[in-house]
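Training component of the fellowship. As part of building independent skills, the fellow (R.M.) carried out the full modelling exercise for a liganded target. The chosen ligand was zinc ion. The inputs are recorded below so that the supervisory panel can assess the work.
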Amino acid sequence: MIKDIPSGSEFDSAAKAQFDFAWDIVISFLQLLEEAKDSIEVEDEDEKAFWETTRQRILTSLIITQQGVELALKGKLVAVSPYLLISGNHSDWPKDIDGSGVSYSEFRAIDAQDLIRVHDTVHETKLDSGFSELFEKLRKLRNKAMHTVDKDLNVSAQDVVLILLEVHEHLYGNENWIVTRRDFLNNSPATHLYLVNDHLEGLVVKEFLTVFNFLKPAETNRFFHINRRQRLYLCPECKYESDKYESIEPRYAVLRPNEPNSENLFCFVCDSLHPIERMNCLEEDCPGNVVSEEYGFCCTCGVIQGVHKSLNRDRPTACVFNMSVQF
Ligand SMILES: [Zn+2]
Ligand SMILES: [Zn+2]
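Fellow's submitted model of the complex:
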């Protein structure tokens, strides 16, 4: 008897935990550099030296990503039949010596290079060729990183972020990576030590602002459904959440639909629409006329609009209102 047979969802959870770990490594370097640049002047050669010292860890994040992809593919096979993963001759199978059964993990699993072929044989919908190429590239890079100390093997933190967004999209379709990352942050070891973790949403905002700022327009369109040619506004909810933690400007929301009389801003981090009111901002130098109905500030400059505004008639300012909700 074969015992301890894993389920597809167990493989999925393990795969996503690997993606989260890899993401954690590279995003921390990108933010570390960003924070340094906000407070001091970072010379080009210092930045180069910074990235040089991160090299091995970034390669490790790539190896972890590759492991995550393999686990995700295994999950897709196990969802059809767990026996698809077992390879080798029957005569080499482990023996059930004491009659208590043989653990599934004792069987030899099929090679990583065969995962896509097996997947495409048993699933009606095949993995697309873009994914196959990415998987092969990743597998080769991983093998190089594991078996050589090639000085020319350079993968940037941005490369790993892009690879993660891409593999997640291929493997999990419409499932939102931001939601997964948020769940991991909300269940991170530190959250079990502190009673108040209301800064976590601010962390999500900060991470995805960093990513949004380095992605190319075609990439923000592909992964976050944001057309960079549209005017970008502060997301009121992301700004409110991040202000609890530190003052940053999550300027990545867009009018949806993109029309002069549009009544909503779409934010890809919140993955929702935020109602807005058209009124001229009270700040002298601000040309903005898009004010958040929920939070009462101008989505162009971030300044809270006056207490006389009809939209805030139940509350002096939206921020005071929201703080009262917390307590
Ligand atoms: Zn938002
Ligand atoms: Zn304004």
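The panel noted the following from the submitted structure. Residues 30 and 157 are 7 Å apart (CA to CA). The first helix runs from residue 8 to 39.
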